[in-house]
Specification:
Blueprint lengths: L5 E3 H18 L6 E4 L6 E3 L2 H32 L1
Parallel strand pairs: 1-2
Antiparallel strand pairs: 2-3
Length: 80
């Protein structure tokens, strides 16, 4: 999947109803809506079916980040 264009936040407001229709008809395969200030990607709206499928991976990423944060705080504590 290629990265869709980034919408300005004002454009995203008008795109959301269209995106919801796509999400209903295409499910997890529908193209997400990416938007942000000055067309810099800051947020994504994606089909719920895709989000639900990604939840296990998201949890793993959170666990790994928590573990890294714990290791970093222990390292700083050990050094002191």
């Amino acid at each position: 999947m290629s990265i869709p264009r980034v919408l300005h936040s004002r454009e995203a407001r008008t795109e959301i109803p269209k995106a919801l229709r796509r999400f209903r008809s295409e499910g997890a395969l529908a193209e997400p809506v990416i938007f942000g200030s000055h067309r810099r990607p800051e947020a994504v709206v994606l089909p719920y079916d895709l989000y639900a499928a990604l939840l296990p991976a998201i949890e793993q990423i959170k666990i790994a980040a928590d573990e890294r944060a714990g290791e970093n705080s222990q390292t700083h504590t050990d050094i002191s």
